[in-house]
Amino acid sequence: MIPTLAPYFLPWLVPLVKGHYQRLQLVVHEDLTQHLVERLRNYEIDAALLALPLDGEDFEALPLFDEPFWLACPPGHSLAELETITPADLRGIPLMLLADGHCLRGQALAACGRFGDNDDVGEVIDDFRAVSLETICQLVAAGFGCTLLPALAALPPQRPEPSFVIRPLQSPNDSRRVGLVWRRGYPKAQELALLGDLIIDNPPLAQDPF
Predict the structure, then answer these.
(1) Per residue in 92-104, pLDDT tens?
(2) 112 and 141 in one domain?
(3) CA-CA to 88 of 20 to 30 Å: which in 122, 198, 202, 208?
(4) Do both 140 and 88 map to the same domain?
(5) One-character DSSP codes across 17-56
(6) Which domain, by its residues, includes 79?
């Protein structure tokens, strides 16, 4: 499972799975997308939960749910006064994003209308090369800048009252699609599909907490 999903999705997923498949023993590895793909190809893991689409004709992918992006900004920031955020609102606003290697970095850039770090929509703050969303959340709360968060990370159960302001993002790329991926021809594909269907039937964002 990718690290931008695991801390927020696992506390929801494990009870759901145990409630339906009590004999299933989950063994979870948290890693970047490129490493998970490599481990899939090397037959080291059975499946991966990551953001779609995934290139490669040797994989099967089952879309599970769409996770919207939210803007997180310090209290008192000019964007905190808006009800929703558009790419135009973010023009010229510096953003703190994850370090290179995290697929969420590119997804966040696309969500705010940027398709490269040299775009003129607003600089990316690289003074803090964070490798976790929780680190970035703490920096936002401390007033260092703004960021884009996937919905599950914006208000997880362990942080019911965020110390920063969150606002929904409205853009052509305002969400990421989370899916279950496995090797084409995997002999237990039917079992993985059952697991995927369980998530589809019980989406983690069915009740919007915002």
Answers:
(1) 888 888 877 678 8
(2) yes
(3) 208
(4) yes
(5) HHHH-TT---------HHHHHHHHHTTS-S-EEEEEP---
(6) 68-168
